[in-house]
Every structure is written in C-alpha cells, then in structure tokens.
Design a protein that fits this description.
The protein is α/β, with parallel strands linked by helices. The strands form 2 sheets. A 7-stranded mixed beta sheet has the order 9-8-7-10-11-13-12. The chain starts with 13 loop residues before the first strand and ends with a helix. The relative contact order is 0.13.
Length: 303
C-alpha cells in the first residue's frame, strides 16, 4: 500500500521573529505574535542581543521568518534562504543613498520565496516599479487608543538620534503662532541628558515613558519630518486615539494617508491638520494585524 502524504505535513512549525533587539518584537510585534496559530513555535531573536540565536534562526531550514528593521532585513535577505516576511518600516537615513537602494533591489529580486512589505507608501511605489518581485504595502504596524488630556499642549514622540535629523522641522514648528501660544513643546523619548541636541527653553524633554503614557502630557501630536520612517507607531497611535495631529504635506503623501481617505487642512507654512478621523480604523491594530497574519499564512504554503 502506498501512503499518501499531504502537503500539510510539511508545513513549518517554527517561526523566527528577527529584529535588531528581541525587546523590539515584544514592544511592536506582541499583538501579531499572539494572533498566530498556536501550532507555530515562536522564537524572538535580536542580532544586537546574542548573535548566536539570530544566526541559528537564519540557518534553520524548516522554519518561517518575520523580519523588521532595516539592518535585520539586510542580514535576512543576504544570509537566509527560507521563506520570510520582510517588513520595511522605512529606509531611514539610507533612503538618500542610491547605491543602497540598488543593492536592495537586487536582494529583494533574488529571494522569490519571501514576502516583502513596505509601510512607507513612496518606498512601496519605488520598489514596486524597480524590482522583479511583487511587493506589498501595509500602512503601519497598527495603532492603539491611548489616553490623552483635553488641554492645548503640543508634543511629539521620538529618539535622540532621530531628533538630530528632524531639527529643521522642529525649529520651524516652534516659530508657529499656534504652537508658541500653547506654551512649552513636549518631547517624549528624549531626556535631559540629550538636551544639547537642541537646547531651547521652549522645549520640555520628558524622557522615556511607558507606552501607555506616551500622550499624557500633550493633546496635539506633531509628526516631525526628516528621518524617513514608514509610518511611525506613535503617529498611528495618535490617529486611533483621536488626537489632533499636525503633519507636513510631504509626509501626508509619503505615508499614503491620502490613499486611505484622510484629508488635511492648512495651519501655516507647510504644516497641516489631519482630518477625517472616521478613517482611523484603517490604521488600527485590529485592522492591520490580520494583514500580517495573512502574509505569514501565505508563507506556509510556498514551495
């Protein structure tokens, strides 16, 4: 008697979540990991933590992968030969380098068993046009509703290294009348030790705070351009939280918010208020996470 073996018996049972640090997976991918099939064994690895588990994940034959952050993605595209979802949150400071983009085109095109997703709409359009492989666009990692006060205070969420690149935009927003009249500008994620980055009496550095407390000190979220992100986690959190959001027109287009039905209204210079918050569900975690789950499930059927 010949035993018939179905394809399901060959489906991988383990998935590696690759990142710069495994804590980033806990912070930004926990909802996705919790939404996966309980039949999948999940391993969270970061190359900046202990390289050996990361390398083992790259070389593990009967496994799936989910990679995010640019440096981890490059390592996965170069050294991993097994099905992986490669998620680009944004190209960051590397976006300006033509050689980097050309190398990325080659790496994406040669890994046919991968599913490649871009969160930045302009990045998606560029690589859709220039790669020999189908790529997808998903607007962010999914926002969650967070409490914020009902007071006229402006602020943003960023890191010290990003703040340096965003300085021209920050200098500009601080000169706007609608910001100056509201008092000090709050910056969450940068503490006083980095005050030398931008030493200004108008800025109130709040330092690192728990995720649930991101917006507790301001009511209007300002998205500062300059870094080259996909769609920042803090931005979609602000949208889902129904905060007033101030954004530049360039980023409004770059993030693809106009494709989702959002609109903008001018405030001054190149600053606009984001409108149409009935569309906030489009970037909510309940709407976005299933898109990544579906991508992983499609990976399991690739031969």
């Amino acid at each position: 008697m010949v035993r018939v073996v179905t394809n399901k018996q060959y489906l991988p049972k383990k998935i590696f979540f690759f990142n710069d640090r495994s804590s980033y997976n806990s912070r930004y991918r926990s909802d996705l990991m919790n939404s996966l099939s309980p039949q999948l064994i999940i391993e969270s690895v970061g190359w900046q933590d202990t390289p050996i588990p990361f390398v083992c994940g790259l070389l593990c034959r009967k496994s799936l992968g989910f990679s995010s952050n640019a440096k981890s993605n490059i390592l996965v595209l170069v050294f991993r030969f097994f099905p992986t979802v490669v998620l680009f949150n944004g190209l960051g400071r590397f976006r300006r380098f033509r050689l980097f983009r050309l190398a990325l085109i080659l790496l994406i095109s040669r890994r046919q068993k991968n599913i490649v997703i871009f969160q930045n709409y302009l990045d998606y359009r560029f690589f859709r046009r220039h790669t020999k492989k189908e790529v997808s666009w998903v607007p962010g990692s999914g926002g969650v509703c967070r409490w914020h006060p009902a007071m006229n205070r402006f602020g943003t969420v960023t890191r010290a290294d990003k703040l340096k690149l965003c300085r021209p935009a920050l200098d500009n927003i601080l000169t706007q009348d609608f910001v100056r009249k509201a008092g000090s500008f709050k910056i969450v994620g940068v503490d006083l030790h980095h005050k030398s980055v931008i030493d200004c009496d108008q800025i109130d550095y709040k330092g690192y705070v728990p995720q649930d407390d991101l917006f507790k000190c301001f009511s209007t979220f300002v998205q500062l351009p300059g870094y080259g992100e996909g769609i920042p986690h803090s931005l979609v959190d602000a949208v889902v939280s129904n905060m007033q959001v101030v954004i530049s027109k360039k980023q409004f287009i770059e993030f693809g918010l106009y494709k989702l039905g959002f609109k903008i209204s001018g405030l001054g210079d190149d600053w606009f208020e984001l409108l149409c918050f009935e569309k906030s569900e489009e970037v909510s975690i309940t709407h976005i996470t299933p898109k990544y789950v579906d991508a992983i499930e499609r990976l399991r059927t690739l031969k």
